[in-house]
Amino acid sequence: MVNSRYEKKNRKRKRLKRILYTFLILFLVVVAYGGYLFYETFQAANQAYTELDREKSKYREKEVKINKDPFSVLIMGIEDYSTGGENGRTDTLIVATLNPKEKTMKLLSIPRDTQVYYEHLGYNSKINHAHAYGGKEMTIEKVEELLEVPIDYYSTVNFEGFKNVVDIVGGVEVEVPFDFTEKSDVDNSTIYFTEGKMKLSGEEALAYARMRKQDPRGDFGRGDRQKQIIQAAVSEVLSPGNLLKVDDIAKEMGDNVQTNIKVSEGIGLSRLYAGFNSSNMENLTLEGADDNSTGVYYFIPYEESILEVRAKLQEHLEIEDTTTAE
Hints:
Blueprint: H1 24-31, H2 39-48, E1 71-78, E2 90-99, E3 104-109, E4 115-118, E5 123-126, H3 130-147, E6 153-157, H4 159-168, E7 172-176, E8 180-183, E9 190-193, E10 196-200, H5 202-210, H6 218-237, H7 240-243, H8 246-256, E11 257-259, H9 263-272, E12 281-284, E13 288-291, E14 298-301, H10 303-316
Parallel strand pairs: 1-6, 3-12
Antiparallel strand pairs: 1-2, 2-3, 4-5, 6-11, 7-10, 8-9, 13-14
């Protein structure tokens, strides 16, 4: 179902730098940590590691073992170009669940304008404000409350890491659905995309994944292009030639990623996912409606869509109910 928001051609909105962070989690858990046998790569991993101020999710009875238990990761793309990454809003929120037993992954993108309730404010606001109010901890809390599934791990990334990793692996090839243009985030020059197969650099891949206004399907069309980038990136990273570049990829992660996935956990996980195929990824969609009744735009998910997505994530995480453990 296409939301009416994306059919309103005259709606004015300040264009924010929308960054495709989605596929970075694949580098994080599939490839980058696999190179930690090298000393310099090990240092890069330690640089990225940042703990959470809690031992486990309230939706868990006990901590998960990343090497054997299904687990979840919240990927946060922070609007750090104006705040240096400190207390900025989240430009991207993606929940990834991974099941090491099945070697499968599910991805859910949460619209940044999703309405949630903030107890400390006493009123509703957008979910992407959570990071500005309380950092990664509050963002995780609000995502957990919305979906009623545990968030075991997190990863924050920025657009420089995205572009550089794509360039390290030699670019990605995608099937462009139609002709369009998009401005470069580097020098504001125009990048031209032509229908058919194209090999994209990091700068071009970012623009390809970011464009929305020229797509007749709005954010839904952009979502499909992001999925293309994910699959293309996985294929490139897992190619024999790029496996030799794991040190460079990991160093890039160290500079542009924060996560609470430990080095030792990443090593074990990379071994489990050694034969991972991008066809084992499922992309989930949170359907909802537009609400501008207060003069501020909100995306309000349909309850039935939340229940459907929740059930799929719980099943993938092998969780039987949503009763909190605390």
